[in-house]
Structures are given as structure tokens and as C-alpha cells.
Design a protein that fits this description.
By secondary structure, the protein is mainly beta. 7% of the residues lie in helices and 57% in strands.
Length: 272
């Protein structure tokens, strides 16, 4: 009898908890009204090869990103992402400055097409006017909303494509907080990185830590992100393993270690 009572209590609690869960919101993109965001990226990337002094690259970029919905099909949005009015600096060397040009499209930052589901899942990202940097990859950080939000959830995103830096997949935790005026979604990570990739004869081993964090402000009624502020904070220890030269034993591997530090402050703000 006691066992039955306990089972009923558990079922009741489960039903109450489920009823309290928030129905997952969704993103909405209008073909009639493009979305425009200002963006700012600033920080450092450091490299350290064995027996070679540290190399540090200070990065700064700002501008406008326009999201233009070019097609809606099969419950998916096809969105063109165009960077304009951009400024790009590396170690204070100006690569591009279009800040005074209203119509010029960046040649350094790629124009891309994103295919995205209403829940936020990025199906694909394709560069249609390739540049040195593909800022559209940042949108892989968008929250992918569960059907019901009852607790924080995890997302694993593919490796970012940062020029000259091999990357491993990253794991983030999202914490949803609904309020009357705005919905905040906190992004955080305390990931211990342990990954291994093999391509042909080269094995790449990743260890390190991901302590990135940030905050999205989401308008549930409009289905739009209002802003994002955060920091990508990674420490990566990378070892490339490859067969030794033919004059050495076949069982020996040649290893090249690389230490990488990435700390980038990223912000976006809705402009229209």
C-alpha cells in the first residue's frame, strides 16, 4: 500500500512539474522586414609552439549585420547575413574601414546564408562571398529551444572555423529566465576539453578548458534576439601526431604541440 502511495505521489509531482514547464519559444523571421544588428568583437588570440616565443594577435571588429529572409520552406528560414559599415583591425593594423560608407559590403568578413529552424537549430551555414572571417559562425551559439523549458539545457556546437586555429567542439549550458519585460538566457560553460580527431595519417589531440559565458535578451512576442553580450574564453592544448620520417622506426610518431588562448568579447545590439 505504501509503495502505491509513493508511486501516485511521484506521478502527481511529475505532472505538476510538467505543467509548470515553460513551452519552448521560437524564432520568427519576416521576409518583409530585415533585422539589423550592430556588432563589436574585441580581444586576443595567443599561440605558443614548442621552443618558439608566444605570438599574440589583438583583434578588433565592428559594424552592422543585416539578416534578410530570402525564403521560408519546410518550416525553415533561409537567411542572408550581410556585414556592412565594418571596421577590421589586427594588432592595430587596419584591414578594412567602411564605417563612413552606408552601402559598401565587407570584403574581409564573409557574406553568408544561414538555414535555421524556428527552434534555433542551425541546419547549415554557407559562405556566398567568402572573406577572411565568417562571422555567421557566431550564430551557432544561438539558444536551440527545447519543446518544454523546465531546467537548464546543454548544447554541443561544432568547431568554429578560426583562421590558423584548429578547434574542437564546444559544450554550453543555457539557463532561461522569463520576466515581464524581457527574457534573459544565460550562456555558460565549464567544459574540460578532451577530444581527438584523426584525418588520414594525422591525429589531433585537444585538451584544455572552455569558460565562456554570455547573456541573450530575447523578445518572446516578436521571436527575436534583442541583444547579446558575452566572452569566448578558451584555453587549448593541441598536439598534432604524425608518422615519423622513413628513416625512423615505423612505431614512432612525431608530435608537434601548440598552445592556444582565445579571449574575445562579443556584443550585438538590435538597431531596427
Amino acid at each position: 500500500m505504501k509503495t502505491k502511495v509513493k508511486c501516485i505521489a511521484v506521478l502527481l509531482l511529475s505532472a505538476v512539474f510538467t505543467s509548470l514547464a515553460i513551452a519552448g519559444p521560437s524564432y520568427k523571421f519576416s521576409p518583409e522586414i530585415p533585422l539589423m544588428y550592430s556588432f563589436n568583437i574585441a580581444g586576443d588570440i595567443t599561440y605558443k609552439y614548442e621552443d618558439i616565443p608566444n605570438e599574440k594577435f589583438s583583434i578588433f571588429s565592428k559594424g552592422i549585420i543585416t539578416f534578410e529572409t530570402i525564403e521560408v520552406k519546410d518550416d525553415r528560414y533561409i537567411i542572408k547575413v550581410t556585414p556592412s559599415k565594418t571596421v577590421v583591425k589586427l594588432n592595430n593594423n587596419v584591414f578594412e574601414d567602411l564605417s563612413d560608407n552606408e552601402n559598401a559590403v565587407s570584403q574581409v568578413i564573409s557574406t553568408s546564408v544561414i538555414e535555421i529552424k524556428p527552434d534555433g537549430e542551425i541546419v547549415s551555414i554557407k559562405e556566398i562571398a567568402p572573406g577572411i572571417l565568417d562571422i555567421a559562425q557566431i550564430f551557432m551559439l544561438l539558444p536551440v529551444f527545447p519543446e518544454k523549458i523546465a531546467k537548464p539545457w546543454k548544447q554541443k556546437i561544432p568547431a568554429f572555423n578560426i583562421p590558423g586555429v584548429p578547434m574542437s567542439p564546444l559544450i554550453f549550458v543555457y539557463n532561461y529566465s522569463q520576466a515581464e519585460k524581457e527574457t534573459a538566457i544565460q550562456l555558460s560553460s565549464n567544459q574540460i576539453i578532451k577530444e581527438e580527431n584523426k584525418e588520414k595519417d594525422i591525429t589531433t589531440v585537444f585538451t584544455g578548458k572552455n569558460t565562456s559565458k554570455g547573456k541573450f535578451v530575447f523578445d518572446e512576442n516578436k521571436g527575436e534576439i534583442n541583444s547579446f553580450n558575452g566572452i569566448v574564453d578558451l584555453v587549448l592544448n593541441i598536439v598534432f601526431k604524425m608518422p615519423s620520417s622513413s628513416d625512423q622506426k615505423e612505431t614512432e610518431n612525431h608530435s608537434i604541440p601548440l598552445n592556444v588562448g582565445i579571449k574575445l568579447n562579443i556584443s550585438m545590439e538590435r538597431q531596427n
